[in-house]
Write a structure and sequence with these properties.
The chain has about 100 residues and is an alpha+beta fold. Helices cover about 60% and strands about 10% of the residues. Strand 2 (about 70) and strand 3 form a beta hairpin. It is globular, with a radius of gyration of 15 Å.
Length: about 100
Amino acid sequence: MLGLIGTTFRAAALPAIRVTVPAALAERAVAAWEYDDTTSPDPAEDPYVRLQRHRAGALALIGLSITESGKLDADGNTVVDLSPELVGVAMDAADDVLRR
């Protein structure tokens, strides 16, 4: 059911969300975007590996957004508009960090 709701959200063309990314994290996201990964996904990969690959892709897309349109604020952090989907993926990954 949640996936069907998400499909509706994607079709709705939701507005971007302006976020502030601390400088060190912005640098790491940009590095993820610049990383040249030429490996192909394994068709038999387990769900955990697939999730990590998708999250790595989302991190790289955040890095791309920072590269293309990020602006430094007075504190040296990066302010950037992100798609709600990227924000959601990052927030889902935060749940895993909080569980550790």
